[in-house]
Amino acid sequence: MNQSSNPKSLYVIGNGFDLWHGIPSKFSDFKRYVSVHEPRIFEEVETYLPAGDEWGQLEQALAEMDVDALVDNLGQFMPSYGADDWSDAGHHDFQYEVENCVDRLSAGLKKQFTNWIKGLPMLGRADLKRRLTTLDPTAQYLSFNYTPTLAAIYGIDPQRVCFIHGSAAVQDDELILGHAWSPSTRPSLNNRDDVEDMDVRLFEANQIIDDYFSSTFKRSAEIIQRHIDFFNNLSGVENVIVLGHSLSDVDAAYFAALLKVPALAIANWKFACRNLSEWPEKLLMLKALGIPVHNASPISWDNL
C-alpha cells in the first residue's frame, strides 16, 4: 500500500456507501443468493443462526448458533447403544453429521459469500444516478467493503485504500466474514459438571462445535496487526469522514485501533446520514464505540 505523507483526511467506508450508489449489497440480497445457489445452507442458516428476517445480523449470529436445536435435530444419528439396530459402524455418524452441518455454516457459507461478492455488478461512472462530489483523492481510506467502488467511480488509487476485510478485485484475497466473540472468552461446550458421564459421541460433537465458533471468529487484532503500517500513517489526520458504516460492535476493535492514534482521538469526525433524524441513535452507537461525541457531527449524503 502506498502511504501518502501525513494525510489530513481519513474516510471510513462501510456497506452503506455501496448501497447509496445502487449496488445490491445488502445481506438480504445475499440471503436471496444463498436460497437459490445453496438451499441447504439457506435452510440451516434459517434454522440455527438468529440472523434476522433479512440476515442483517448474520455476522453476529455466527456466534449465537442454536447448539441445542442442532443436537436435537441430528439426534437421530445418535441412537442408544442398546438399540436393536445398533452397529459399531455407526459410532461416528452423529459426529459426522454435526461436522458437515457446521462446515456448511462456516466454510460453505463463506464460500457462497465470496462468490456473491465477486458477482456483484460493478458500476462505472456512466451507470450512476448520483455520485458524491467531495471525496479527497489525497486522503487515506479504511474500507470495510470488498468492492472496488472507490476506484471504479471516483478514481481513488487502490494503494490509498486499506481493504481491512479483503478486496474482491485482488485474486485469491481472503474475504473476511465473522463474529466478534473471542474463543478465549467462550467456555467450551464440554465445560460442564457431568462431562465424565457424557456420551462420548456428544463430547466429540461438542469439540467440533467449539472449533466452529473459533473458525468463524473475526480475528480483528491479527488483522489490525497485518495492516499496522496503515494505522501508523494516520498521525496527521484532522478529519475523519464515516460513509455508510453501521457502527456495529462487530467492528468495535477497528474503531478502538483508530482511537489509539492520538490525532484521531481529537480529530473532527463526520458521519453521513440519510436523514438527520438518525443522529440521536448514531450518537448512542458512537458512545458505545468510545468515539468522542463532542468531536462528532452529522452530515447529509446530499451535502457530500
Strands, helices and their partners?
Layout: E1 9-13, H1 15-20, H2 27-37, H3 39-48, H4 58-61, H5 67-73, H6 93-118, E2 140-143, H7 149-154, E3 161-163, H8 200-215, H9 220-226, H10 228-232, E4 239-243, H11 252-259, H12 262-265, E5 268-273, H13 279-289, E6 296-300
Parallel strand pairs: 1-2, 1-4, 2-3, 4-5, 5-6
Backbone CA Rg = 22 Å
Strand content: 5-15%
- Please bin the fraction of helical residues: 25-40%
Shape: elongated
Write the element-wise H/E pattern from the N-terminal end onward: EHHHHHHEHEHHHEHHEHE
Termini separation (Å)? Answer: 26 Å
Structural class: alpha/beta
What would you call the quaternary organization? single chain
What is the averaged pLDDT score? Answer: 92
Low-pLDDT residue intervals, each spanning 5 or more residues = none
Number of strand elements: 6
The number of helical runs is: 13
* Strand line-up across the major sheet: 3-2-1-4-5-6
Biggest pleated-sheet summary: 6 strands, parallel
What can you see in these coordinates?
It is a single chain. This protein is an alpha/beta fold and 304 residues long. 40% of the residues lie in helices and 9% in strands. It has helices at 15-20, 27-37, 39-48, 58-61, 67-73, 93-118, 149-154, 200-215, 220-226, 228-232, 252-259, 262-265, 279-289, and strands at 9-13, 140-143, 161-163, 239-243, 268-273, 296-300. Helix 7 links the parallel strand 2 (140-143) and strand 3. Helix 2 packs across helix 6 (93-118) and helix 6 packs parallel to helix 8. The longest helix has 26 residues, at 93-118. The protein is elongated, with a radius of gyration of 22 Å. It starts with 8 loop residues before the first strand and ends with a strand.
